[in-house]
């Protein structure tokens, strides 16, 4: 006849993933190992996943005996997402900004919780114009507007050369990466010849000036229409 005797042992004295009990059998005690919670994030030093600035997906292996483990993107959800796929598959959108960004994912299996920090590299600086030439007729008018889109991930300012009152510039839309220049000629050009100006750009931080390079907008307003030359 076999008599079982359970012995309570404080969890702190046990290995992290096993509970040890003892059973009495004829002839002595026999140890019985009962598996506990196994939930480990594998191959992720410092709990940090480093990714490039480009759009990408990386799978982080999970060692677990918990079927219903869960996760949540607690910060950085605007650019980072995750799903279960042979572990946890972490996806990031392209980073168009010139600064690094970080997301945090919390994972829970049984009574064990882990955090993963996703560190995405900064994007490369860029400066783009939707067009480089704008032409107006001689009549002008504030209702005749030409739109040029400037896309950039660093701060910049524009200048008109030579400085002139015949060319107006408004910037009604100001976004993080895209700004819209609205160009117009408020007055007619009564001269026989066309008048011209250039809109050039300067980076607020001089280290980005080489990215702008020679990009500019050439603006022309035609001369007045002479009878017989319509």
Topology, number of strands: 19
Following the backbone from N to C, one meets helices and strands in this order, namely EEEEEEEEEEEEEEEEEEHE
The largest pleated sheet is described as: 4 strands, mixed
Runs in which pLDDT lies below 50 for 5 or more consecutive residues are: 1-26, 28-34
Q: What is the domain total for the residues? A: 2
Structural class: mainly beta
CATH class of the largest domain: Mainly Beta
Strand fraction equals over 45%
> How are strands sequenced across the largest beta sheet?
4-11-10-7
Provide tags for this entry:
single chain; 230 residues; mainly beta; Immunoglobulin-like; 2 domains; 4-stranded mixed sheet; 1 helix; 19 strands; 2% helix; rod-shaped
Describe this protein's structure.
- By secondary structure, the protein is mainly beta.
- It folds into two domains: 39-120, Sandwich (Immunoglobulin-like); 127-221, Immunoglobulin-like (Sandwich).
- 2% of the residues lie in helices and 52% in strands.
- Strands 4-11-10-7 form a four-stranded mixed β-sheet, with no helix packed on it. Strands 12-14-17-16 form a four-stranded antiparallel β-sheet, with no helix packed on it. Strands 13-19-18-15 form a four-stranded mixed β-sheet, with no helix packed on it.
- The model is unreliable at 1-26 and 28-34 (pLDDT under 50).
């Amino acid at each position: 006849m076999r008599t079982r005797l359970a012995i309570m042992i404080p969890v702190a004295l046990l290995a992290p993933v096993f509970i040890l009990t003892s059973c009495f059998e004829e002839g002595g005690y026999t140890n019985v190992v009962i598996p506990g919670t196994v939930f480990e994030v594998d191959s992720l030093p410092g709990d940090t996943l480093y990714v490039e600035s480009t759009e990408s997906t990386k799978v982080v292996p999970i060692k677990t005996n918990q079927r219903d483990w869960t996760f949540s993107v607690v910060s950085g959800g605007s650019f980072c997402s995750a799903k279960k796929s042979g572990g946890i598959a972490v996806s990031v959108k392209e980073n168009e900004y010139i600064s690094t960004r970080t997301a945090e994912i919390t994972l829970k299996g049984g009574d064990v919780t882990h955090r993963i920090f996703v560190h995405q590299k900064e994007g490369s600086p860029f400066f783009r114009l939707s067009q480089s030439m704008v032409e107006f007729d001689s009549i002008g008018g504030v209702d005749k507007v030409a739109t040029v889109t400037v896309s950039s991930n660093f701060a910049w300012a524009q200048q008109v050369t030579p400085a002139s009152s015949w060319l107006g510039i408004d910037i009604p839309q100001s976004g993080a990466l895209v700004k819209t220049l609205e160009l117009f000629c408020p007055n007619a050009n009564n001269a026989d010849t066309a008048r011209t100006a250039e809109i050039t750009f300067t980076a607020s931080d001089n280290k980005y000036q080489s990215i702008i390079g020679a990009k500019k907008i050439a603006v022309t307003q035609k001369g007045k229409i002479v009878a017989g030359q319509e």
